[in-house]
Amino acid sequence: MKLTRSQKLDIKAEKRRRVRARARKRARVWYDQRQRAWRRQRQVERVKEFNVDRRKRIRDWEKQKEQIKNDKLRRQRDAKIAKSERHKHQEKDRENRIQARHDERAKEREKEAARTASTKEAGLT
């Protein structure tokens, strides 16, 4: 059976349509795969970024915790030093007061001795 010219053209057009459909399908599959790969890549980058941010936040938090601890220790040490300084000054003041009292009593004794000596002299003569 011999095919007419229009039938031959129809067959060729059908082949071309199938070839183009296969090419479109290949392109769609390739694009879908690329899209999935791009999405995966973006997700990986987001996770990496999140982990970097998380590590940075953890590092900052640890630094802050360390800083707070150091500040607390520094305050305690300063308080201890201030307390010992106050204690030293109190001791010195106490010693000065005792010394002043001793000096005062010694002067009074000298005055008393001078007075008694002068009265004795007056009484003797």
Give an overview of the whole structure.
By secondary structure, this protein is mainly α. It has one helix at 5-124. The longest helix is centred in the middle third of the chain and has 120 residues, at 5-124. It is rod-shaped and about 180 Å long. The mean pLDDT is 92.
Task: Describe the structure using short key phrases.
single chain; 125 residues; mainly alpha
Radius of gyration using CA atoms only: 53 Å
Number of helices: 1
Overall shape: rod-shaped
Structural class: mainly alpha
- Beta strand count: 0
Q: Fraction of residues in helices? A: over 70%
H/E topology pattern? H
Strand content: under 5%
How would you characterize the largest beta sheet? Answer: none
Instruction: Estimate the mean pLDDT confidence.
Output: 92
What is the end-to-end distance? 182 Å
Low-confidence stretches: none
Itemize the secondary structure elements and their pairings.
Layout: H1 5-124
In short:
The chain is an all-alpha fold.
